[in-house]
Structures are given as C-alpha cells and as structure tokens.
Protein 1
Amino acid sequence: MSSNASGASGGRAWELIVYSAQFFFGGWFVFHGLNHWMHFFPQPPGAASVSSQLISALIASGLFDWVKAVEVVAGLALLANRFVPLAAIASFPISIVIGYLNIAIENDANSLYTFFGVLGLNLLIVLGHLDRVLPLFATGNIAPSLAGLKNLLPVNDEAYGNASHTQEGAFSATPRKPLKAWTILLCAVLGTALPVYLTLSTLPQPGEPGAALPASVQSAAGR
C-alpha cells in the first residue's frame, strides 16, 4: 500500500471516529438538556450530598436553565454538523464540571465512565477541528483589527461549501468534504437514539445511590 493510500485510509478512519464522537455527544447533550423541561426521566440528584446540594442550588437559582439551554443549542449544532468547533468549545465548561463532579465527588464505576466519556468525546471533537481552534490560542503581542468583521459577511452556505475543495473556504485550513443531508439526518437519529437508550437503561433504581427521589418526597421536601 502506498503512503498516499495509507494516509487517506488513516484520515478517513479519523473522520469516522470524530464524527461518531460528535453525533453521540450531540445526541447526549440534546436529550439531557431537553429533559430539564420535558422530563423524559427524573433528574438524578447525585449520589453524594455535595453534588446534590450543587444541583439543587443551580436549579433554585435558575442557572440550571442556562446550562441546559447551552446543552441543547450546542447539541443541536453538533447533530446538524454546523458550527461544530464553536459548539465543541462552548460545551467544554459543562463537560469539565460534569467530569469533575463524577471523578472527584461521586467517584464510583459509572462516574468513571461518565468522566472519560464526556470529556473524552468533547476533546475528540475539538481535536478533529484543531486547525480551526488553534488560532484562538495565539500568544503573540497582537492588535485587534476589523478584518474579522469584514470577513464575517461572506460566511454562508456557499462559503462553507467552498471549504470542501479549496483552502480558501470559510474557516478552513485544510480541504474536507461536507456530509450529505441524508447522512447528517441518519447520524443525528442514531446519535440521539444511543444516548437515550444508555441513559434510560442505566438510571439508578429507587433505593440505589443517586436515584431520583419520588415526586411525593420531592414535593414534601420543597415545602
């Protein structure tokens, strides 16, 4: 096998890995984000008292609404394969908090999976678009300019399409082909179905650590 063929094969495998992470992570964020308003499953309070207090405080203060709104918006962007670098970066603060709570406070087997799963998937997505993210870490003594605002207007579907065959496309450092609409739809459905199944099939049962309190108990506690 030639080096070019080997490189193309490796590049394709990397694309599949990153796309798998992207659509699963996006589906997970959308499902868990919408659950805050649509109540697909009871919100687990956390197995540890500290995490339970934190979640309760976030809900009482209204900040949980914003957290879940970011999850939904970022998740939808990932499922639609649009604004992927921005969505991945915006998701990182939430992923870090989820990861920290699970590894430092909850600290059980499922929490370990959640820690590596959430942060690992988020990191994979960023690595898949690293050429578009690295400019954010410019360390030079640089001055602001109007160049970005002037270049903002041409950013449209045609500009994104040009990124598939030229290095002059919008935000593109390397050429890459966009996914077809039917592929995005199929991946979005599968990417959402799997987190839904995994979440509902692994919810703590009543009496187990981290299980949601019955509605009657929650109502009584809120009085």
Note: The mean pLDDT is 79.
Protein 2
Amino acid sequence: MSTLADELLNDFEDSGSEGEQEPESGGLFPEADGHAPTTNGNGETMELDGDEEDMEEDEDMTGAGNAIDAMDDEEATKAKVEKMQLGGVDDVRSVAGLMKTLEPVLEKISYFQNLPADQQTTHVGSIEDNPEYHLLTQSNTLSTSIDNEIILVHKFIRDHYSTRFPELETMVQNPLDYAKVVAIIGNGPMDSENIKRLQTSTDNILHTTLRAVLDGPSLMIVTVEATTTKGRPLTPAELSRVLSACEMTLSLDRAKHTLTSYVQSRMTLFAPNLTALIGSLTAAQLLNFAGGLTGLAKTPA
C-alpha cells in the first residue's frame, strides 16, 4: 500500500516530467511593470502578481513546524489586535488593506474558471512554470491571511459600535455574526418594538433578518439588552464608518470561500495522488504549511 510520502513524490515527479513551456505575449493580463506574462498549459496568457524568484524561494522552504506556528501566529495576532485602540481611526481601509491584494487574485480566479472547457488547464506540464499553480499557491496563502484581517476589522467595528451598543460584543463574539448583527441593527432605534421588527425584517443592507443570523437564545438576549443599552446614537459619519467595516468583513469572508473553493478544485490537477489519499481540503492545508509541492516533497516524513 502506498504511503503518504510515496503519493506526494509521485505527484511531484509527474508534474515535473514535462519540459518547460515558452511564454506567449498578449492575453487578459498583458506585460506590465517589467514582468513578462506567462501562459497556462493551453497557451492562455496570464501574469501573476509577485516576483517569480520569490515564489520559488518560498516553495523551497520546508514547513515541518508551520502548522503549530500558524496556530501561534493566530493567537499572537488576536492578542496584538486586542491592544489596539481603533476608535480614533476614521477609515477601516487605513488599517486593513488586504482587499486590495485580494481583488486582482479574485479576478484571475474568475478568469480561469470562466475559460471555455477546451481552453482550461488539463495538463500541468512543468509545475514550476505553470501560472495557475502559482495562482493556487498564492490563493492558498491569502486564504489564511484573511482570518487575521477579519480579526482586525472586527476590532475596528467593536471600537466604533461600542458607542451605540457596548453590550453587544460580549453577547455575539463571532466576528462574522457580529458584523451582520451590527449591519442589521445599525443606529436603531433600540426600543422593544423596533428590535422585534428587525427579527423578521429584511429592510437593511444585508437584506436578511436578525433571526437568520442569531439562534433563539442569542436573539432573546440581544433583544433584551438592546432595549436597556447605555449607548448613544451614532452620527451619520460614525454609522457610515461602522457599516463600511461590516461590508468589508463580509467581503473578506466571501473572498475566503472563493479562494478555498478554487484551491480545492485544482488540487486534483496539481496533486492528484495526494488528494485521492487524504482529500482536497487536507492536501491544500499541507501545501500551504509547506509552501508548495516542492517544500512538501522535501519535508521529512
């Protein structure tokens, strides 16, 4: 029976057995800023962000302890963010700029996904030269960065919305749910009649109900606390800042789902044996921890 190491080596050897492919000019992302565009296995031109040499160096790094490091980094990020005082920051984009990096990556994912079936990458060739492989590793890395960004934006929302409803952050601690509840409740009013109306109303920027976000017990507690809150109404400018941050949180969450789905869908192409053995999700996580197939192949068993 094949071991995990055997399957990984088979994937890596298969992907590197073909010769290098010459890049062609033209395509959706033309040559710019001195970076020559690359092509996929079917001649479709793409240029990926980042320096190619840096990508190769990253993939050469092994990641035996990266899983533990990732957990430590997340806890360290939470502790660091909690010490920040973001109430005086007027624009969430001044402290959270990951969406600028994500947007072109999401565009490239959409490009590859919307190619006609006869133009999609079906043969990897030399994996190090395949533009979609670099997009896959970039997407995999960014998907983990999104979690830290959401933590930061969550702190921004709490620091600003605590003026209106300070008790809410202790009742709804999940960042995504918190952003949704804030977007639905907004500036109130916080009287019993209006809060009950919000439970079933879709008249908000999310077009969803409070009941759809919170479970029964949480909904009851939030409803009661809202009617007795010590907060004050926000000014239009303050409310706008809060709602913008809520929208960013939801955009980051959607981006993570897009990146994760894309990575998992391509794992069967770039690491078919490993994916068949442990599944696309776990294979993608291993790939991310090791910095790519090269790093994973060099990781001690």
Note: The radius of gyration is 23 Å.
Protein 3
Amino acid sequence: MISSILLAAALAATGVVGAPSPADVVAQLKAAPAQADRVKILDKDSDFVFNFWNNTAVKGAGGETISATVSNFPVLVNNGLSMTLGMLGPCGMNTPHTHPRATEMLYLVNGSITTGMIPENGERFIFNTVEAGSAQVFLQGSIHYQQNEGCDPILFVAALNSEDPGVLSATQRYFGLPPDVVGAALGGLGVEYVAGLESMIPDNIALGRQECLDRCKIKRENQPTKQRQSRDSNNALPGMTSTTWPSSMTRRYQPPSATPTASKYSKTGNVAVAISDDDHTVAANGGISNSVLITLAVVVGVLAVGYVVIAVVWLVRRRRNDAKKANRFYVRPEMTGRSLVPTDEPKYDTPQ
C-alpha cells in the first residue's frame, strides 16, 4: 500500500492525470509482500479480465497471434502463467521459435496442423499431426513450429507456465548476429549472401510450405519483414557502416527468382578456366556452379550419342531379319520330312 501511495503522489507531483500504466501497476504488484496486497492494488473487477480482441496482435502474411503476459495483463504477476491466442490463415505457419522461460501446451480449436519440435542438441526431431480437440506440449527452450495444413483458417490457444515466457524467433534472431559470424557458421558464406538471405525472412505468422500453397492455390506474394533484428555497429550488414571484409566474403547473394547474370566465360567457352574459377561464378549462374553445368552437359551428350547408336544397331538388325524372311519358301505340311531332290517316284501332286 505504501508503494501505491508513493506512486500516486509521484503522479500528482508531475501533473500526470489518469490511470497508471501497466508497467507502473506491475511494479506495484511486484513490490507487494502478499497476494492480498496485490488484490487491493487491482481494485477493479475488470482488472482480472483480458480481452484478446482489444489488444495488439503480432501479424504476418499468414495470420496473427495475441498474447496475454505480465507486460499487458498485470494480474499475472507471481501467478506463473500466460496465454496466447493464435489464428493461422490457410497454410499459415507459426515459424520456428523458442520460449526461453516457459513450457507451452497448445490446444487446437479447429482444423488440423502439423507441428515440429527439437528439444535440445542430440535429441530427435519430434513431429506430430494435431487434430481439433487435441493438445501438444512444447518443452521449455525447445525450437518448435506449427503449420496449418488446410485451406481454411484455424484457431489455437496456448497456455504457458510463466507470466513472462519470452519468445525468440529462431530465423530472425539467428540472422541478426554479425553477418560474418552467420556466414562462418553456415560453412563460409559471404556477408553479402547472408545479407541477401536475411532480407527475405518474413514476419511471423508467415506463409508456410509450398505444397500447401499449391494445393490451396495461394501465391507466395511479398511478405512483410518488419520483425528483422535491429542493427548497430556490432552486427551491421554490408554497406551500413565503414566496416570492410575481405573480397572472398563479399560475394553477392541472388534469390532464386532473380535473372541469372551472364557468366564472363559464356562467350569464350573456356571450360578449363570456368572450372578453375568456379567458386567465383556460382552466383552468376543462379546458384549453380560451372563444373555442375559442364558435367550435366557432358552427361546429356553421352546419353544422346548412346541413343543414336542403339537406334542404328536396331535398324540394321531389323533389315537383316526382313531379308532372311524374304528368302524363305513355303513347304506344304504333307511334304514335311521328304526330300526335295527329283526322284523316279510319282510326284506328290500327281492325280491318283
């Protein structure tokens, strides 16, 4: 109560009029020594009700989620729970994420979803198809996702055992690390590659698997990317600061839809040079290396020659067989086994 009085006095001194902010109420509740004191701070009956439809949603091209946590629902302080309402549109995906401080139990109201979870390093990938009326548990700290497999919207309700569960979107945050670190972890990708990939990461909820989109006749249009990691000098992308990287790390990334740039070797046809400089021309060929293209061309050429040879052999053998058939003569059944050399015996066709 003392903290409540002090807060009211501070608001009056600064000329602030009106109800305290949720953050102020949370501070009071955390300072209260007992539950009874917290109930007195929450002096309105409506303080115990949360209206999901009147709160800000996290939106993407594939749907939206609305969460009730301690930050927007102060009554949850010291009560160890929170809740999220999720609406996945047709083929919408709640992209891979973790809850660092809570275990989640998700109940599906309608439709059907597929889910995936990796609890930690060394553990198996856990995959399920969850139908309406069923629930699944996602372990604290695990990477998990939910995908609407239908062409109609679905609704889920997720309960978490912390008033402050936290959410860490795996893809957005991973690519928010310094680009040279991300590139090294991915086997040596250049920072321009990393920047190109990072620019394509959609906001959650995103459009999901291509098979579902094709089945539901949904086009993967440009999706919003406002949830990307904020940047400063420590994790800046190429071109954002004066930071420089070796030329071997600055090869540019080209999305699959981009028109491939003509290779500088396409006019000379110098195969040896193309192979030797293969590493520098992967992006120019739309992500396919010169050595792969040359190998494919050789294989196709060998197959074509093989088919021609087979066709010629078949035609020659057929003509020979036709010639043999033309030289054969017909022998009547009653002459079978008899000599065809003329003798003094009566001819077989002499009338009797």
Note: Residues 268 and 297 are 17 Å apart (CA to CA).
Protein 4
Amino acid sequence: MLNKRMAVFFLSCFLFIISCNEKENGAGKKNSENLQNKTTQENIFSNNSIEKIIETFSKKSRENRVRIGNFDKLVYENKNYYYARINSKNDAIYALDYSGISATSIFLKVGKVDGANLGIIENMVVNLIQVSDEKIKDSEARVIYAKILSNLGEKELSGLLTYANKITYGVRIDPETSEFIFFAKESENENNITSIQQFKLENEEGKKANFELLANSKKNKK
C-alpha cells in the first residue's frame, strides 16, 4: 500500500515537472519569437529614433550619392519636423514628420518636376525608400517607384502603394505648379501630407528657406 502511494506521489511530481518545463519552453519560444520580430523590424524607419533615422539618411545618401545638408528642427502648423536641403537640387528637401521621439512619415519635396530632372528625382526617391526600409535594395526601390507612377490618376496625379513591409508609399504632383512630393508612412491616411505642401523654398543661392520657415526654425532654437 505504501509503495503504491509512493508511486502515485512520484508520478504526480514527475507530471508537475514536465508541465513546468513545457510552460518554460513555451515562454522561451515566445520571447525568442518576439525578440526576432523586434530585430526584424528595426530596418523600418518608424521603429527607430529620430537620431537613428537621420543617421540612416546620412549613410544612405552617401551611398546613393545624394548630397544633403544637416537636418534642422522646426514646428510648422503645429506639427513637428526635421528637414534637410538636398544640395544637388536647390528646390528640394527631405523632411521627417514626428510625434514624440518617433517619426510617423518621411517626405521628399521638389519645387518643380519636369522632363529634365526626372532621373535626379528618381534617385532621390530611391534614397528615401531605402531609408524607410534598410533592407530594400536599389533595384527593388526603383520597382516600387515605377509601380506607384503607373497608378497615377490622370487628373489628381497622385498614387499610393502599400508594400509588403506595411509601409505606404505615395506620390503627389500638383498639376498647376508641377510641385512633386513623395512620402513613406505606416498607413494610407494622407492627413499629414497637407502640411508639407505648404513648405515654400526660395532659390536664393539654394541656401535659404522662406521667411516663415526660418522664423519658425529660430523660435525652436531659443
């Protein structure tokens, strides 16, 4: 009788230990998967700090031979931005729209697009796409851009593409001024695009923004 009780006791202990091990293994596997997902997503711009995105911009721009200036902070229409001029084109900037310490979208804005600068603009777009997702290669970025252009509307001249990385890329061209905007964000909501359209750039030696932009920039530095 005693031996039977001991056998039941040891069997119960054995089953308890197995159960605990299974739970630990399950938790370990889940933590491993979460860590892997986190590591995988670090290539996406919105999962990184502003400092990291600016660092990536500098790195990719050097690799892609797109000369940019330093990023400056400003507040425009109650929204937070960092922007940098593209030295190779006086009427072009890159900008980050952010909330807290994370960027919600990144932009390329060119004052005017025409047949003479299509190649230059494509290179600047490719650069931005590679900043938005560091795993995207040059050829893949050009395919993304080509797909968006193929979907442009005849009247509105705008198009969107939500890619496999869950980033929404888009183009908007003003039919009257030929102003060009390319953006990358995590959703198809274009509400933030309207503010970037108000950025006005002067061509005076390609070094100065307009009075309003400079005024806002100076306020933030005080």
Note: Residues 6-11, 13-18, 27-40, 201-222 have pLDDT under 50 and may be disordered.
